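Weekly modeling sync, notes
Attendees: S.R. (lead), two postdocs, one rotation student

Agenda item 3: backlog of single-chain predictions. S.R. asked that every request posted to the team notebook include the full sequence so nobody has to chase files. The rotation student volunteered to paste the first one in as an example of the format we agreed on. Action items at the bottom.

Example entry:
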Amino acid sequence: MKQRSAPPKARSPRRGDLAVAIRIERAQELLEDGQPRQALRLLKGGPAPGLAAERDFLMAEGFRAMGDLGHCRAPYERALRRTDRLSDPTLWLDACAGLVAALRSLGDCRTARKLLAEGRRLARRKDLSSYEEKLSLEDCLLDRAEGRYGKSLGRLRTFLALFLSRSDQAGAGFVLWAMAGARRFSGDLAGSLRDYRRSAAAFARAGDGAGEGYAMLGLGGVERIRGNLAEALRWYGRARAVFAGTQDLFAQAYAECGLGNCLRQLGRPGQARQRYLRSHKMYAMIGDAADLAYVDWGLGKLAMHAGRLAEAEGRLKLALAAFERFRETRGVVLARVALAAVWHARGATPKAESIFDAALRLGRSSGLHAHLEIFT
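Predicted structure, as returned to the notebook:
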């Protein structure tokens, strides 16, 4: 599952009808107070013509703050279309950076790179160094998303040194979180644990509870893969408590799915199913079909271990179709390996061998090691 970074703070409207401007200003305050749902309700009314782009941008930020990346794309794109990049470069660049991050998390790295290049050219032309830095960091994260883990880690270390030199603990926490993910996917589990711990500590020093919660989710994931299920449960439980008081549905769903995975591995299928179904509901609410597929994979594994092979096959096929549609390589590998086991058990061994071989080739060619996570 992919984790999302918190969206940047919204920006103040500067022109247009006074009443609409006040409403948009209030929506911004609600976003900064962690109330995106209320902000979105306030933004539903039509804005004054001069404030349409600001309203679209804030709507996109509201959806993104809830983890609803599918719905944030259209308002980001509208904000970009409605903004003159030369006369209002900061609004255009804010929307650009937000959309690049959303596209990256949605797996559309090709479109993200094209938009990123436009943004970097504009930032250089307007001599906006803070945006050049922000977009350069996004470039590192795109390297990570595309499986270039070594390259991404090298560049992220430079950002880590930069943020530490500024005593920017929140920035350092975010970079360490990104580094930990790159290490996890490249197979360096010990290094991943170290960086997730450092990330959580940096976020704690910054007073960033959400950032610390995301680091806890990372710690839960790595400990689960390593078989330390008591530790994994503890981290997922702590993260769940952090996000319970927020409107970040993605993080809440992620924690529930992680707990479901741990409980399944511990042989507690009834409790695991409850967590999976909660996670399924929340992912469905934000239209996150790619991460919802991990829930279907978990439910398929539950059915497989209970001997309900027809049910398991149906769930795993559903998961695999979504993983393939969204180019979620790790999920594709996990689903293919599980399907191979089900098909072999049902007597379709040649078919099972074929999909298992495909999973192995994909896992190795992508630099991922999901094909080695068979016991999970």
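Discussion: group reviewed the output briefly. Residues 89-106 form the longest helix (18 residues).
Action items: rotation student to repeat for the remaining queue; S.R. to check formatting next week.
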